[in-house]
C-alpha cells in the first residue's frame, strides 16, 4: 500500500525461495522476476507458478550482484532473506545491487526480524509435528547473530539444517541505505502497517533510490 506500484510494474523479488511472494505479486498483475541461490528452491518455484498459470521469471543469482541495471520499478526482500553474511561489506554490496537494479526513484521494501524483539523474546527450543514429520528447532544468540538449528525426523531418518542471521538494527539499515544511495521513507513494526518500535515483532522498511544515485559507486561504510 505504501509503494503503490503502477499496474504492470516490474518488481524484483530478491531471495525469492519457492516463490510465495513472487506469486502473490504476479496474481496482482505485476511483472515479477525472482532470484535465489538455491536451484532446488527455484525449480519448485517454477512448478508452483506453472500450476497457477503465472508468468514469472525465476533465475539463479547471488543477491550481491545486480540483475539488470535500472530495469525494475520496485525491489522486495522479504521474510528476513537478508543478513546472512559474516562481513557487513557484503550486506552493503547487496543493497547497492538492489539500488542498481532500480530505475530512478524506484522503491525498496525490506522485511526483517526486529533484533531487540528477538533478543527479548527468544524461544530457545520448540517441537511440533506436521503430518509424519517431527520438527525440532533450537535457537541461540552468539556473536551478534541469531542461530537456528532445524532437525526434521521422518521414517527413522533425521535431517538437520542450520541458519544464521546477523542481528541488524534499524541504525544498521540507516547506515547501509545512506551508503547504498537509498533514502529511508518509512518503517513499520508488523504486516498490518503498525508503527515500528523496539518491541514490535518485525522491522519493515520502505526506501527509495536517491535521485542521481548509482548503487555500485556510492561511498563505502
Rounded mean pLDDT is 95
Q: Could you list the spans in which at least 5 consecutive residues all have pLDDT below 50? A: 216-221
How much of the sequence is in beta strands? Answer: 35-45%
Strand count, sense and barrel status of the largest sheet are: 7 strands, mixed
Q: Write down the overall geometry.
A: globular
Which strands sit side by side, in order, in the main sheet?
3-2-1-4-5-11-10
Number of strands: 11
Q: What is the CATH class name of the largest domain?
A: Alpha Beta
Rg of Cα set: 18 Å
CATH architecture of the largest domain: 3-Layer(aba) Sandwich
Distance between the ends = 31 Å
Structural class: alpha/beta
Tally of individual helices: 5
From the 3D structure, determine the CATH topology of the largest domain: Rossmann fold
Q: H/E order of the elements?
A: EHEHEEHEHEEEEHEE
Number of domains: 2
CATH 4th-level superfamily of the largest domain = Vaccinia Virus protein VP39
Estimate the helix proportion, in percent. 10-25%
Amino acid at each position: 500500500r505504501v509503494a503503490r506500484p503502477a499496474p504492470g510494474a516490474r518488481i524484483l523479488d530478491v531471495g525469492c525461495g519457492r516463490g510465495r511472494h513472487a506469486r502473490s505479486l504476479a496474481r496482482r498483475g505485476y511483472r515479477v522476476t525472482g532470484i535465489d541461490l538455491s536451484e532446488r528452491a527455484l525449480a519448485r518455484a517454477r512448478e508452483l507458478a506453472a500450476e497457477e498459470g503465472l508468468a514469472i521469471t525465476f533465475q539463479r543469482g547471488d543477491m550481491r550482484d545486480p540483475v539488470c541495471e535500472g530495469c525494475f520499478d520496485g525491489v522486495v526482500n522479504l521474510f528476513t532473506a537478508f543478513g546472512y553474511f559474516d562481513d557487513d561489506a557484503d550486506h552493503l554490496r547487496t543493497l547497492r545491487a538492489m539500488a542498481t537494479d532500480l530505475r530512478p526513484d524506484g522503491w525498496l521494501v525490506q522485511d526483517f526480524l526486529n533484533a531487540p524483539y528477538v533478543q527479548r523474546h527468544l524461544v530457545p527450543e520448540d517441537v511440533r509435528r506436521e503430518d509424519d514429520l517431527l520438527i525440532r528447532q533450537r535457537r541461540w544468540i552468539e556473536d551478534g547473530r541469531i542461530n537456528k538449528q532445524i532437525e526434521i525426523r521422518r521414517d527413522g531418518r533425521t535431517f538437520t539444517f542450520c541458519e544464521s542471521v546477523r542481528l541488524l538494527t534499524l541504525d544498521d539499515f540507516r547506515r547501509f541505505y545512506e551508503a547504498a544511495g537509498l533514502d529511508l521513507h518509512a518503517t513499520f513494526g508488523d504486516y498490518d502497517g503498525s508503527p515500528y518500535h523496539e518491541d514490535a515483532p518485525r522491522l519493515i522498511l520502505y526506501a527509495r533510490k536517491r535521485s542521481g544515485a548509482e548503487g555500485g559507486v556510492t561511498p563505502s561504510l
